[in-house]
Amino acid sequence: MTDMTAQLDDDRPLRPAMLRGWRRRCPACGEGRMFEGYLKVRPTCPSCGEDLSHHRADDGPAYLTILIVGHLMAPLIMVAFVEFRPSPLVLASTFSAGCVALSLYLLPRLKGVIVGIQWAKRMHGFGSAPKDD
Length: 133
Fold this sequence. Notes:
By secondary structure, the protein is mainly α. The chain has helices spanning 3-10, 14-22, 60-84, 88-120. It has one domain. Keywords: Membrane, Transmembrane, Transmembrane helix. The chain crosses the membrane at residues 62-82, 88-107.
């Protein structure tokens, strides 16, 4: 590993970028809002001007949302069915609403995390070398 590569890896810590993404903030400064709407990433940060148009989140946030919601709700459905024996309609409607609500909550946050990871790891164009003045 060259000195330049080590320097590029050190100046963008992963954990703060992921936490900022979870909060739906710019991974660089943590101040500006990352999204224009529900899931549309802004081209640049309104606070620091960081170019966010390089992100390639694609289907990753959706897969992670399905994975998390499925792993949380499946055991809860089993426990609710065994312990409380609700009617099938009550069980289905309650857990359908819960799955939709949890999915809507997690999806933009997980997209922010993925954009934060891409920024920290300098993936997909986020890795342009710093300019020498």
